[in-house]
Amino acid sequence: MGKRKNQTSEFNRRINQRILAEAGIRRLSARDIARQLGKSPSYVTTRYNETVEWLPADIETLAHAWDMEPEELIARQNGYQTKPSIVEQQLQDVLRRINAGDLTLAANHDLNKQAEAESEDDC
């Protein structure tokens, strides 16, 4: 008899897609995820392959490692919107400032500018 793949729930498949997407955004391999979880790479691979479901503790650990709440990781994948993550809030703030014409974001803050202006050139 051939080995039959265990079927995970649709909810787990959605969570897995979200974890894969977040890992891809962060350019994390299964080995990197395993390190974050304190597990083996094969542990992560079995979840990526959907032969075993992700544990709630895994989802919580990964979410916190990625500066988000576990609810955000779950809600986004299932079409629910929660508060934006810290990174998303910072990005929205920067975009709002740029759209408002705030050019201080692009300004070069040179700590030596005043000293250079006061010094004499040797030319």
From TrEMBL:
A molecular function GO annotation: DNA binding
Superkingdom assignment: Bacteria
Protein name stated in the entry: Uncharacterized protein
Organism of derivation: Bifidobacterium catenulatum subsp. kashiwanohense
Organism phylogeny: Bacteria, Bacillati, Actinomycetota, Actinomycetes, Bifidobacteriales
